[in-house]
Specification:
The protein has 168 residues and is α+β, with helices and mostly antiparallel strands. It has one domain: Lambda Exonuclease, Chain A (Alpha-Beta Complex), CATH 3.90.320. 45% of the residues lie in helices and 17% in strands. It contains seven helices and five strands. A five-stranded mixed sheet has the order 1-2-3-4-5. Helix 5 links the parallel strand 3 and strand 4. Helix 1 runs antiparallel to helix 5 and helix 2 crosses helix 6. The longest helix has 19 residues. The protein starts with a helix and ends with a helix. 26% of the residues are buried.
């Protein structure tokens, strides 16, 4: 299985969510928050579709890539999961490097809070990505779903009802 940016982000957010998603249990289509994020992505930077390129590499899709400046642009609704967002963009940069595209950087855009964050990939990050990819493969190939963990983000997760129905 090709590891995607979604897999990589879910690794940092919740291992259970990662396993469920990778094993075909998708709840994103039931979430108003996911829908809102999709609308922000599609409607906020409309000029990008004409200026930048959408590329697909090894099963990952980078929506906005500026091939002249070598910058990946990733739009997110909120910075509450900024660490996962950074690692997702670092994963994209790493994937492009694997294909011989050097000197790529990233930019996280949070239009609803008018915030941007630069993303660069270090040698330590490259080592960490290799390790995380191996861990992701172990998690998604496991026979059983990882146990649920109570986190502050659970109540806004599209898998909340799946994981916590019947719980007090």
């Amino acid at each position: 299985m090709n590891i995607t940016g979604t897999h990589f982000a879910y690794y940092w957010i919740c291992r259970r969510k990662l396993w469920l998603f990778a094993n075909g249990i998708s709840m994103e289509h039931t979430s108003d928050l996911v829908y809102e994020g999709k609308m922000i992505h599609e409607n906020t930077y409309q000029h990008r579709a004409s200026r930048f390129t959408e590329i697909e590499v090894d099963g990952i899709r980078i929506d906005f890539y500026d091939p002249f400046e070598k910058v990946i642009h990733e739009t997110k609704k909120s910075d509450k999961l900024e660490d996962a967002h950074h690692w997702q963009v670092k994963f994209y940069i790493w994937k492009l490097e694997q294909r011989g595209i050097e000197g790529v950087t990233g930019k996280l855009d949070y239009p609803t809070i008018r915030h941007t964050a630069a993303v660069e990939l270090t040698d330590d990050d490259r080592e960490k990505i290799v390790s995380v990819v191996n861990e992701i493969e172990i998690i998604i190939n496991a026979e059983e779903c990882p146990p649920k963990e109570k986190k502050s983000i659970c109540k806004n997760c599209s898998y909340f009802d799946f994981c916590w129905s019947g719980e007090e």
